[in-house]
Amino acid sequence: MLHAMLNTAIKAARQAGREMIRAQQRRQDLRVETKGAKDFVSEVDRNTEIMLIETLGKAYPTHSFLGEETGGQAGRRGTSEYEWIIDPLDGTTNFLHGHPQYSISIALRKEGRLFLGLIYDPLRDELFTAQRGQGAYLNNQRLRVSGPISITDTLLATGFPFKYHEHIDAYLNMFKALFPHVADMRRMGSAALDLAYVAAGRVDGFWELGLQPWDIAAGVLLVEEAGGLVSDFSGGYDYFSTGNLVAGNAKVLKGILKTIQPHLPEGLKR
Phi/psi of residue 157, each to 5°? Predict the structure, then answer.
């Protein structure tokens, strides 16, 4: 049954991706609003989420949804233990500027536990998928996180806390602590793709604060099924509540945590 659900999610993501690419060509004419300081939402975000929910809801009318733009929604007919978590356009600012780094993220949770994850990059036609206990894949090729290397050899991904100005100083202190010890860092603007790249071994680790469940749900399962680990800043598993997340293989994750923890203020120690 889960395989059928994944196929339905893939169909929905590919359909939405085609519409997204068409919309990219007319991005100068798109309606754009602000949800907060430096937090944009376009008609593409909203239309894509509606399209995804309609496709999945038609196939599974009792399932509920948690979407970035529409919030929580109960099933159309009754309720079940399944919940789809959707980010229709992760990397909206990139999309609006024509910067080619954005994605669609879909995850399925059953009774609070992740069972399916999908991240689709429509520009590169790269489809990252994972099923609980069955591994992670990129276009049907099995994925593994990078091997256990010293943190001094790592390429890390991160994201700036652009929505949370109160954490800028803490973030910069963590960045300054890590930067001399790693090979380099990248800030690409789509947390979902950052996690997919950890799963694919394209980057060795990832850390960010202030993320939402729809930013990370699919990516968390991808990393885990590719042999990696995910934690909050304390090394625990409360990242869905705190929004603070570190990912990588066991050695890299331990190295990141050891380096940033002395620089965490009380409010970010989870």
Answer: -110, 150
Q: What is the CATH number of domain 2-142?
A: 3.30.540.10
Residues of the chain with CATH 3.40.190.80: 151-268
pLDDT exceeds 80 at position 158: yes
pLDDT digits (tens, 9 = 90+) for 14-45: 999 998 888 877 766 666 556 544 444 567 77
| Percent above pLDDT 90 for the chain | 68
- How would you classify the pairing of strands 64-67 and 82-90? parallel
pLDDT score of 39: 47
CA trace torsion 204, 210, 214, 219 (10° rounding): 10
- Average pLDDT value for the chain: 89
- Class of the domain covering 151-268: alpha beta
Structure tokens at 138: 């990129």
Is residue 39 left, alpha or beta, with left meaning phi > 0 and alpha meaning psi from -120 to 50? beta
Indicate where the chain has its CATH 3.30.540.10 domain(s): 2-142
Q: Is the pTM of this model over 0.85?
A: yes
